[in-house]
Give the backbone structure.
Amino acid sequence: MVLRLLAAVGVAGLILVAASPARADIYRCKRKDGTHHYTNIREPGRGCQLVVRGSKRSKANKSAKKKRASASATSGARSKDPARYSRYTSLIDEAAQLYQLPNSFIRAVMRVESDFNPQVVSRAGAMGLMQLMPKTARSMGVSDPFDARQNILGGARYLRILANRFKGDLVLTVAAYNAGEGAVEKHNGIPPYKETQRYVRRVLKHYYAYRGGSAP
């Protein structure tokens, strides 16, 4: 059975910049108007400061499993603080209502991506609760990916765009969040990447658990 997410109005036309990092280091750079943004590319003359030093393996692997890293591939993703699972409920509810996504779906993606850790950074440079890459964060309007509200809203917005692109197919939406929409379209389904296939199974497992009222 194909699970589908209802299409939302007003976001189908948004353009998403492909997230393919050149480095795993994360910089905080200053724009001409005085505001700051996060990026994985140091921009000369912008007063960029290194805020997170990534792995020495700085070259991005073109395969999807290296483009994004879920919580299983993050450093420090696990925490002994059980309160984190309910700490962001109001923000998840806000994002679910705004982008017309199931609360349990957003929660499941967040569980697999970061295990509800707002400060975690993957080896590939994905940041925060929903593990946004710098370019993805910027394209979703996220100026500070370590701000929980911005990150969750940005991640939910990206999920909504993917859900619209794949006509509400939940499985393909999850696969595209991990591997990229290009990979899903190329293979006309879940890409044959072990990491992505495992990722989809984990997200769906948590989705059904949350939907059924099960706590982690």
